[in-house]
Fold this sequence. Notes:
Blueprint: E1 6-10, H1 14-27, E2 32-37, H2 50-57, E3 61-64, H3 76-98, E4 103-106, H4 109-121, E5 126-130, H5 137-142, E6 148-151, E7 165-167, E8 192-196, H6 203-216, E9 221-225, H7 234-243, H8 247-251, E10 253-256, H9 261-270, E11 273-276, H10 280-289, E12 293-295, H11 305-315, E13 319-321, H12 328-340, H13 342-348, H14 360-369
Parallel strand pairs: 1-2, 1-4, 2-3, 4-5, 5-6, 6-7, 8-9, 8-11, 9-10, 11-12, 12-13
Amino acid sequence: MRMIHKIMITGGHPAPALAVIDQLKNIHPECKIIFVGRRYNNAHEQSDSFEFQEVQKRSIQFINLNAGRVTRLISIQSFLQLLRIPLGFVHSLFILTKYPPDAILTFGGYLGLPIAFVGYLFGIPIYTHEQTIQPGTANRLIAHFAKKVFVSFEQSKIYFTQTNCVVTGNPIRASIFKKKSGDILIDQSKQCLYITGGSLGSHAINVLIEKIAPKLLQTYTLIHQTGNIEEFADFDRLMKLKKTLPKNMRRNYILRKHIFDDEIGFVYASSSLVIGRSGANTWFELVALQKPAILIPLPWSAFNEQQQQAELLQSYGVAKLFNQEHSSEQLLELINQMMDNIHGYEEAYKNHSSIFNPNAAQQIIARIFS
């Protein structure tokens, strides 16, 4: 077993990173963890990111990395992001000079690439995990100098050399299996829908739900995670909508900017149907908990990964796809159709229990320390 006294964890997917961190603290409590990530949700807002808040709760050193990325949108912000790309490599040089680790584990993305590249130049062993079914550009580049590439999907192996690629599955937060309610109170006489746009929330999903929330609340309890992007102010707008509803509906419309680790297990356990994006983290959590879902792929996800992941889950008979360009009324109709046959979707999971590996985080840690 290699002696690793300090490990740096970074990259664009906070949920599997947090899952590995929690396991690492249990298995190797003597190992110091440094997390390099995104302090704020974006460069022009001062709202704390989900990953920053969760890392702080774990009393782990958090270092904010100033880096840019290539986006598919053409705007002033996109141009400014391009200018920040060289800054990311310079800042990574400063970080690794000041806090040199024994190993680096990156979860890809525009935050992972500069840290991994500079770390490689410093002779630090690099490990990376690819969460999605079709790898992004950053991880394809990182793979060229990584000692090991861990992938979530068997289908991802074709993009990497077979000698350093290992299928581990996607690390899942242990908290999704814990059913502490926190301060969330749910009317148990009604079926519950969980609406989520991921850690940042989804403006498109929020708008779709906003138009049909009063109709949904006639039948269901809604737990709606909006995110906290100040540009859209979705949470504040939906809170105003909630205040206009009858008292019994207000009680059954539970709005949160984020669902944190101490409540996520209860939210999942209470929900019959999940409505959200089809990122890999959501995908594997749904599979782990065998939750039927309506998946609304992010249209501009890298290499159309979310569409592919949603199609795969739909092919198992446990989920349905929905295009965010379709109307709220069409979404309402699909929700009601799925809820009418919710037990059929739950039963379909029994044929696909082998696609989830509960030991993904442990396997990654074992490979790094071996």
